[in-house]
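Colleagues,

For the teaching module next term, I've prepared a clean inverse folding example: a structure given as tokens, and then the sequence designed for it. I'd like students to try predicting residues themselves before seeing the answer, so please don't circulate the second half yet.
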């Protein structure tokens, strides 16, 4: 499959070199097309869009306060419905992990509970990068940030599972380093009615501490080690995505240290933290195996 050639983001944005979010945004807009309205809270994406009076996208963008992304998407959709345009225009909420897992979770939960017909995409760079790398609910265990200088003491929040508990029709995980998988998931979400949620790993060179040229490598290692499985939940049915299917076999996963060693944010970790990561990954995949087995038995 080839991606469409048309671009909806102008060149020369203010994003950092090697920014995973910029790649995600580019792919998402290719999938959704020109008939799209985007709502964005305070985030790295507002930096990418540019200074007041300018915008780097060819589609309409509404900048909203940090906590209100889900509410603003609901308002945009209500306006389109009133004008009879809701079937013709995609509403996309696009927020970072701080604006999703923490500050924006209330408005998102409310919209999901109502079944609001929009796509919510969280680009997860695992900290508040735009304001100086403070920890978020999505920051992984042991990571050093400006507010956890000795390393975060808890695991990252499982936001896809929280959204799945709202019984919405589509939940997916994705990764900036797998653009075709990402593209297909946005295309699929576009055709489903109701609230759709896509949680996307977004490698961040300055926040994670690696060379910009290694963004694709770092993202792929997250999936290849089993730390970031790619999957979909469609009307309650769990499906592993193609890039992750082989990693259900633990022997095919790369050691988690292959992922951690490239990033300065992990340099203070001791062996106990690394052991905790191994257990964390094993638990993720055991749960996946149980879930798939249960689904298979129910179909018999």
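(Answer key — instructors only)
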């Amino acid at each position: 499959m080839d991606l469409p050639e048309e671009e909806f983001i102008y060149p020369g944005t203010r994003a950092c070199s090697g920014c995973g979010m910029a790649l995600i945004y580019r792919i998402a807009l290719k999938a959704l097309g020109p008939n799209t309205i985007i709502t964005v809270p305070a985030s790295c994406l507002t930096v990418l869009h540019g200074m007041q009076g300018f915008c780097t996208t060819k589609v309409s963008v509404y900048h909203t306060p940090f906590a209100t992304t889900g509410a603003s998407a609901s308002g945009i959709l209500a306006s389109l419905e009133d004008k009879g345009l809701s079937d013709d225009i995609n509403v996309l909420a696009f927020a970072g992990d701080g604006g999703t897992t923490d500050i924006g979770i209330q408005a998102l939960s409310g919209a999901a509970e109502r079944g609001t017909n929009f796509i919510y995409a969280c680009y997860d760079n695992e900290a508040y990068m735009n304001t100086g790398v403070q920890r978020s609910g999505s920051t992984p265990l042991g990571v050093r940030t400006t507010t956890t200088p000795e390393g975060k003491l808890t695991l990252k929040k499982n936001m896809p599972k929280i959204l799945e508990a709202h019984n919405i029709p589509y939940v997916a995980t994705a990764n900036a380093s797998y653009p075709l998988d990402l593209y297909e998931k946005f295309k699929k979400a576009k055709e489903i009615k109701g609230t759709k949620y896509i949680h996307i790993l977004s490698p961040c060179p300055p926040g994670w501490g690696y060379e910009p040229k290694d963004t694709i490598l770092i993202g792929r290692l997250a999936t290849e080690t089993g730390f970031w499985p790619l999957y979909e939940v469609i009307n309650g049915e769990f499906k592993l995505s193609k890039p992750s299917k082989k990693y259900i076999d633990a022997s095919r996963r790369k050691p988690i240290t292959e992922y951690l060693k490239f990033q300065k944010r992990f340099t203070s970790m001791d062996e106990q933290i690394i052991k905790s990561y191994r257990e964390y990954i094993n638990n993720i995949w055991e749960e996946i195996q149980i879930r798939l087995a249960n689904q298979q038995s129910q179909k018999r």
